[in-house]
Amino acid sequence: MSYDDSKQIKLVFTGSVGAGKTTAIGAISEVPVLSTEAKPSEAEVARRKATTTVAMDFGEITLDDGQKVYLYGTPGQRRFDFMCHILCRGALGLIILIDNTHPDPLSELDYYLNLNAGFLSQSMAVIGVTHYDENDKPSIEDYCQCLHERGEFWPVMYADARSDKDVAMLIDTLLASLEYC
Amino acid sequence: MLTLSERALSSPWDYHQDFSSANVVLVFVDSPEGAQFWENDLPNHPSACFVACSAGNSLDTPWKLDIAINSLPSRKALVELLNALSTHLANPPAALPAPPKPADSPPESLDASAGEARSAATAADESLPPPTPANVAAHTGRPAFDPARHLLGLLQKTIASSVDSIFVLPGQTWLLASPKTQRYYSASPVDKLQTLLQANVDDILSRPLPVEKMLESALSQGIRHHPLAELLWQAALASSGERLLSGRSPQDVVRLKHWPQVTHLPSFREFLRIAAFMNNNAASLEDIAQHTGMRIEKVFDFHNACEALGLLERHQQPAESAKSTACLPKRELYHKISSRLSRPLPTP
Fold it and tell me: Which residue of A58, A168, B79, B278 is most buried, as measured by CB atoms within 10 A?
């Protein structure tokens, strides 16, 4: 069986460690999320989580005509950033999740936008700010200001990765934006 | 009250503390001093017009103003009286004029725990102005949307003044808007606030009330708070009525400054396509309706709500790329995915 990612319908979730990528996919996937987790090798990550994704997360949903939409989550550790480029190949768009309890969430946003700049020059992103209930600074307006300074206008909203409604709203926003980019 | 009413008055009026120099004197006859003045002192001031202010006014006098007990007269009643007096004083007839139409029943006083103040809004003429090209949405012939006639206008003034204020629809519901905390507070869920959000400004009572004082009072029972932006959004949508904002045109070219932060509200979902288009394109309201396939009246509502949130950029001309760029098969795929997500997702 050959793998042709150009024919897959896929959405990619990326973002910092602990932002909720695995959780978000699990919130809407029809199948148990296939995770590739291990103890983190980076000390900073180990302080935040007991395990972390090392290759990718995988989930799927089935459309009414039987087509599958595949949901991929990238690893959060920086040493696995190369997986972003592999997984984004042929994807419809990118959902970037940023943990607002991170010491510097706006720098994380900058990082993931830079990392995926090549893909985003041809496609769209939506930004979900997670853990907003635990820490509401920076505010969504601060994120918007950061994007404006970059000359970018991706939709940004707070989202609970555990909520299927919030995750669905992120995807719906991405799809609506893809129509009019 | 005079300052608040002056926009609707046909002549300028000044307030005098010394009634000996006044043309018109309002006498609160329900008080002992006022009753005594009315009985004994009127003949000593033949040049002035005396207005009997009373609850349940039964005095035989040409000029009356009905008020609720321990309250001020309604702004509408005051405006009617002063405009009638303006005409009388400017053209004094030989005989006494017919008394003005009795004032409408004033709004109920605020609940005792909330105080008894009146609306702080600028006065608005009760009757709609006749449609003119300046204030009519050209394609509908309906009067344009004027936030000043609804709670939205009061909220905008409250935010501009940075003063926490409580708003009451007597006998129905209330809320407190706090520019200081950027929240609004209410014991009622959003659906129960609709009557207040849609109410005419003259039916709404309001006064400044610091949020700390409200939280200390009996009003704090069952109170919940939400972002103030959500209140502005809902107030705009509730009162917009698919009409374009006064002074705006369907040919206005606009774009979103950034994504609206009301995505969690159920009312946002129906505007998702409009928001996505306006986030990526500067276009006229007519073009937005055409490219998104949405009715232009829905575009008006979204436009008005975004204006209330300060989200609109106005441009001189549309961007060249304002169009739907996705091909039909892709758009169909996107719609299929959204359709699937709108249904309950099975748990693995």
Answer: B278
